[in-house]
Amino acid sequence: MPHVSQVFEETQPLVVSVLDGYNVCIFAYGQTGSGKTHTMQGYGGDTGVNTRALEQLFVLAHEREGVYTYDIKVSLLEIYNETIRDLVDPKDAATGDDKKLDVKIAPEGGTTVPGIYMYIYVYMYIDATTGNDEKLHAKNAPEGGTGY
Fold first, then answer.
1. What residue numbers bound the domain in which 137 lies?
2. Residue 65 burial class via C-beta count within 10 angstroms: exposed 0-12, middle 13-18, buried 19 and up
3. Whole-prediction pTM
4. Most buried of 28, 60, 79, 103, CB within 10 angstroms?
C-alpha cells in the first residue's frame, strides 16, 4: 500500500487547479479495510490527503496575495451503499435524523449536494493602510449547500 505522502504527490496538481478556477473533488474508492479513511483523514501524526491539500491550497493562496481574491468552499461527505453522508454535520437539525442528501445538477452547471454543511473561506488581499491584517475569513453556509 502506498504511503499517504505518495498519494498526496499524485493529487497535488489538483490543488493548483483549484486556484486556477476549477472545481476539484478528491475521493478514495476501494474495498472495506483497504485504507481509504487513513489515506484521506490520516492517523496519529500522519496527516491525511485532505489536510495536506488544504494546507497547500492556503499556502498557494497566500503566495498569490494581492493578485487574486479567492472564495474557497469545502465540504466533506461519504458515499456508502449509495447513501450520501455529511461527515461534518450528519444530522438534520429539525428532526435529529440523518440528513437525506442527493446529488443534483446546479442551476449554473456542475453538481451540488443541497443541505450539505459547507465551509466557506474567503481569502483576499487586505490593503495594508487599513491596519487590518486578517486575511482569512471562514463561515458556514446555510442549508442548501451554498453560502452566497
1. 66-148
2. middle
3. 0.68
4. 28
Confidence of residue 97 (pLDDT cuts 50, 70, 90): very high
Three-state DSSP at 36 gives helix
Q: Please report, for residues 40, 92, 95, the alpha-carbon distance to residue 88 in angstroms, rounded to integers and kept in the order given.
A: 14, 12, 17
59 shares a domain with 81: no
DSSP count for the chain of H helices, then E strands: 3, 9
Rounded Cα distance between 61 and 72, Å, is: 10
Count structural domains, the chain: 2
70-74/111-112 β-pairing: unpaired
Q: Which residues contact 5 (CB under 8 A, 6 or more apart)?
A: none
Measuring CA to CA, which residue among 94, 111, 98, 96 is closest to residue 145? Answer: 111
| pLDDT tens sequence across 103-147 | 999 888 888 899 998 877 765 544 444 444 444 444 444 444 443
Q: Are both 25 and 1 inside the same structural domain?
A: yes
Here the cell at position 51 is 489536510
